[in-house]
C-alpha cells in the first residue's frame, strides 16, 4: 500500500503518526540538529541547507507498507533538498542524498528510486542495515529526455515502478488545443534512450503514487487520476485509457463528482 501527499504537514513535536486502521505507525520526532543554522549573508553555501520549522508544512511525503509483513518505509523530501527516511526498526530519521533536489520517489523490493529535478534517477538500497546509494544503477548516466512537439506542454511528471519491477516515467501533457493525455516512457537498456510505452497490459497506474495494480482484463492498461493530475484547474477524477487516449470521467452525483476518498483492492497473484 502506498500513501502519498504532495503538500504534507509532517508534525515536528513529540510524536509523528501516520494513521492506519490498525495498528498505528508512530514515527520519532525530528532532531533539532536537522533544522540547520541561522541565516547569515556571509555564508550563502550554508544557507542553501538551512530550513526552519515553517518548512515542515510542505514537501513530498510518502509511505509504503507491506500488507503481509507490515514492514514499512517512509520517505520525506523537505524543500526538495533534504531526503529523510525511516523504515520499520529504525530508532531515528536518516538523511541521505544531501544536495539532491528530489522531484518524486517510488519504492519496490527494498529499493527507493529517486527522480531528481534534473530528470535523473538515483537508487537507494534498503536491503542492509543502512540505506546506501546503489552503484548498480542502469539509469544513473541516462537522463530522462524526449522529443517534444512545438504545440506540446508538460504539466506534471512522475516516477513509477510496475508490479513487474519496470521503472518508468509518466507525464501529463497538453498535446494540442483542448487535448490532454498521459505519456509513459521507459529506458531501452541497449541504447540508453527513453522510449514511449503504449501499453501497460493488465495493469492500472495510480498516478502520483508510483505504483500499478492488476486489473481483470488486458486492455492495454489505464491510468487513474484525480484533481489537477491531468491539467491545471481540472477538478474531477477519471481513468485514462492508453489504447484509445480517451478518458472515462467519474460518475456525477448531483452537482458534485465522486472524487475522494479512493480505495483500491488489488488481488494477490
UniProtKB/TrEMBL annotation:
Domain KIB1-4 beta-propeller: 24-240
Domain of life: Eukaryota
Protein's name according to its UniProt entry: F-box protein At2g33200
Amino acid at each position: 500500500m502506498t500513501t502519498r501527499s504532495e503538500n504534507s504537514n509532517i508534525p515536528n513535536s513529540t510524536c509523528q503518526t501516520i494513521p492506519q486502521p490498525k495498528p498505528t505507525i508512530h514515527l520519532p520526532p525530528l532532531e533539532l540538529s536537522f533544522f540547520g543554522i541561522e541565516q547569515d549573508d556571509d555564508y550563502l553555501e550554508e544557507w542553501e541547507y538551512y530550513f526552519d520549522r515553517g518548512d515542515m508544512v510542505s514537501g513530498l511525503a510518502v509511505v509504503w507498507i507491506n500488507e503481509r509483513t507490515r514492514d514499512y518505509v517512509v520517505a520525506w523530501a523537505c524543500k526538495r533538498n533534504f531526503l529523510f527516511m525511516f523504515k520499520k526498526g529504525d530508532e531515528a530519521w536518516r538523511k541521505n542524498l544531501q544536495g539532491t533536489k528530489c522531484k518524486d520517489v517510488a519504492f519496490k523490493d527494498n529499493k527507493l528510486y529517486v527522480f531528481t529535478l534534473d530528470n535523473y534517477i538515483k537508487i537507494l538500497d534498503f536491503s542492509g542495515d543502512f540505506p546506501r546509494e546503489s552503484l548498480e544503477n542502469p539509469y544513473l548516466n541516462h537522463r530522462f529526455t524526449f522529443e517534444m512537439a512545438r504545440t506540446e506542454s508538460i504539466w506534471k511528471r512522475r516516477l513509477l515502478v510496475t508490479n513487474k519491477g519496470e521503472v518508468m516515467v509518466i507525464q501529463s501533457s497538453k498535446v494540442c488545443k483542448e487535448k490532454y493525455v498521459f505519456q509513459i516512457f521507459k529506458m531501452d537498456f541497449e541504447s540508453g534512450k527513453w522510449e514511449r510505452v503504449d501499453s501497460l497490459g493488465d495493469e492500472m497506474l495510480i498516478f502520483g503514487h508510483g505504483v500499478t495494480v492488476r486489473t481483470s482484463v488486458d486492455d492495454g492498461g489505464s491510468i487513474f487520476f484525480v484533481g489537477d493530475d491531468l491539467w491545471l484547474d481540472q477538478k474531477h477524477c477519471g481513468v485514462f485509457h492508453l489504447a484509445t487516449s480517451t478518458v472515462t470521467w467519474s460518475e456525477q452525483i448531483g452537482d458534485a463528482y465522486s472524487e475522494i476518498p479512493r480505495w483500491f483492492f488489488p488481488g494477490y497473484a
